[in-house]
Amino acid sequence: MKKYFLLLMLSASCVLMAQGQRLTDYVDPLIGSGDHGHVFVGANVPQGMVNVGPTQLETGWDWCSGYHYDGRQIVGFGHLHLSGTGCSDLGDIALMPTLQELELSREGLATPFRHENELVRPGYYGVVLDKSNIRCEMTCTERVALHRYTFPRGSNNARIIIDLANAVGDRLSQARIYRLDDTTLAGYRLSHGWAPQQQLYFVIQFSKPIHNWLCNPEDMSYSQATFEVGPGESLLVKVALSPTNEMNARLNMATEMPGWDFQTVRQEALQAWDTQLGRIKARFRTERERRIFYTALYHFLYAPVVWNDVNGDYMGSDGRIRHAAQFQNFTTWSLWDTYRAAHPLATLILPDVLQDYAQTMLHIYREQGELPVWHLMSNETYCMVGCPAVPVLADLVLKGVPGFDYKEAFQAMKASLLRDNRSLDRMKQYGWVTWDTGDGEAVAKSLEYYLADWSAAQVAGLVGEKEDSAYFYNRSMNYKRMFDPERQVMRALSTEGKFRDEPNFNPGHQTRDYTEGNPWQYTWLVPHDVPGLVGCFPSKQAFINRLDALFEADGDLGENANPDITGLIGQYAHGNEPSHHVLYLYNYVGQPWKTQQRVRQVMQELYTDQPAGLCGNEDVGQMSAWYLLSALGLYQVEPCGGVYQLGSPVVEEATIHVGQDRTFTVRTHGNSDQNIYVREVRLNGRRLTEPRIHYRDIVAGGTLDFYMTSKPGRK
User: Fold this and answer.
1) 465: left (phi > 0), else alpha (psi -120 to 50), else beta?
2) Architecture of 2-274 per CATH?
3) Angstrom distance (rounded) from CA 108 to CA 104
4) Which strand (E) or helix (H) includes residue 514?
5) DSSP secondary structure code for residue 590 in this structure
């Protein structure tokens, strides 16, 4: 029977593919579901609110998304999931089908499954549960999930358990569920976790009348709806979500999914993915490279996610229902990760949502008094360090994205950087975060604030705030005070401007002043002033020697190594974001062939097309964005402004839709596993003399030709 159900799922998939080759055919959603990738596995549409899929019994760091390839038991199918984060949350409003009475607990609901009975495609998830033989399938629109449960035998007691208790890393505060009519339930779930005050409203509608409704009015965390089904009959369930109220959840359902045609909804979800993946049309030398690239693009397009109802209502950061009249409101802002590559990539391939990004950030600023740090479900989590929204918003200003007030954007940056929370009072008083005042991670905090200061300074100059521009620029240069010329690393300063006394200093093991890193990795976190960083060393050659040593150093991280420091080449850690720009620093000192060699090494060795295909957390698209840009031969090192460094592309040819019927094409000539070095680059036929290109040249449209060779040493 299980083989029969799996054949049904496969045949339905083949029907969808029979219409012709799709870009989604090259996507494997299980890439990154093993090792420490933490990706979401289930059904969603690009940037959709609904991420519906299995939540497993197992818990822990590698189950931050609720799913890991090594997991073997499912406890329910939740409707919100994170992807690639290092913290757990969501998994809200879980359904579990069964043909028998189950113990209403996490362990009691758990049922085994096997990967051979699982089918995952963009916009679709299907699995056969071992114990019950029930075939579970799901697809969705932006705000509404559609489940199809096919029962192997007839019963008047087929039941769907609605689990409001179990989730992924958060705790239930309050739940309510009630019956609207013979086929419809509604309610809400309030919880606290990573996002401290989560509110989610829902409406659940069944394709058959509820035969029996079981719910304890004193404890609504679990309830059950039973149905009469015939042998092999399917029960369909629609679940609409809303951040504001049940009425809007009903409106979302009526607008996005008025009918019950599972195949049509699935087809439309698949088409939505194909359309978005089509923003980059690329050819490759190998199928492996193509799978990695398009799966990376798929993962990049998960977030940020829509966080308003179809009528524009959303829950503000101040807990008030607000209305997004002229923009789409978004949540899941993993900005400490994504300012580095994901947002610079978005400015190239997602021009139509950039105004929404800016407006969302400015509305968050108006509601909570500062720009988002790590925003989730209308909540500020304050996760990670720095002011990462500042370079993102500054990048949109400096690239001329229309549709928002640049002066207000600067005021939001200024207000965020001059607050007294998160060690910013020390920044104002001393010019750096001090280690002797109880501030942990002082180096990481300072360096992240400096690059945000520099970004704000650029915008201040643009909008005519000269004094503010000078203030933030001068503060951003204080990184030079943190550089220890003797040890040639960045070190924490005291209130008196002195380095911590550490006679047994070991740059590979010292972590207390660094966020998920050590001095080896953080010495290079000056993307806003690489020439100035070079000047901190005794000579340019000394800088090169130290950068070479990073990749050759002993990779031992000591007994207390942070699990996020992964993907090591020497002490270079590609599995975590602070290292992501480092490979491109050779471009600044006249040795671009070393950038080309290291970039190719990382793409070849640390990205694969297997479940363990990511060497670190996906981090809401950042790991994938690094690959996508690098595969195209581009990377923006400076935190904002639009200068893209050139590397060693792996694409044969890639056409990027950059807006208003303009395309930008990257082509490689003579590319191979041996020809990884760049002999010359031509932009629209003109030879480039430096290994960089500007945003304005890309979005103007044109062609960038890389001529490859096996011999290093040429610009």
Assistant:
1) beta
2) Distorted Sandwich (2.70)
3) 6
4) none
5) T
Cβ(327)–Cβ(359) under 8 Å? yes
Q: Vertex 403, ends 402 and 409: CA angle to 5°? A: 90
Write out pLDDT tens, residues 75-110: 999 999 999 999 999 999 999 999 988 999 999 999
DSSP three-state, residue 460: helix
Domain 286-709 has CATH 3.30.2080.10: yes
Say if CB 73 and CB 56 are below 8 A apart: yes
Say what angle helices 262-277 and 2-17 make with each other, to 10 degrees.
Answer: 50
Determine phi and psi for 629, rounding to 5 degrees.
-65, -45
Per-residue pLDDT tens over the stretch 232-267: 889 999 999 999 999 999 999 999 999 999 999 999
d(CA 508, CA 522): 11
What angle, 0 to 180 degrees and rounded to 10, lies between the N-to-C axes of helices 622-631 and 342-349? 60
Q: Give the C-alpha separation, 147 to 149, whole Å.
A: 6
Q: Which of 543, 582, 592, 547 is nearest to 690 (CA)?
A: 592
Residues 6+ apart with CB under 8 A from 669: 705, 706, 707, 708
- Locate the domains of the chain by residue range: 2-274, 286-709
pTM value is 0.96
Distances (CA, A) of 371 to 25, 111, 347, 410, 412: 39, 43, 19, 11, 6
pLDDT in tens, 390-449: 999 999 999 999 999 999 999 999 999 999 999 999 999 999 999 999 889 999 999 999
Return the ∠ at Cα 577 (arms to 571 and 579), rounded to 5°: 35
Report the distance separating Cα 673 and Cα 286, nearest Å.
11
**Rounded CA separation 39/388 (Å):** 22
End-to-end Cα separation, the chain, in angstroms:
62
Q: What is the dihedral of CA 476, 480, 483, 488, to 10 degrees?
A: 120
Phi, psi of 159 (to 5 degrees): -130, 150
Residue 517 C-beta-side C-alpha neighbours within 13 Å: 30
* Contacts (Cβ under 8 Å, ≥6 apart) of 642: 347, 395, 398, 399, 636, 694, 695, 696
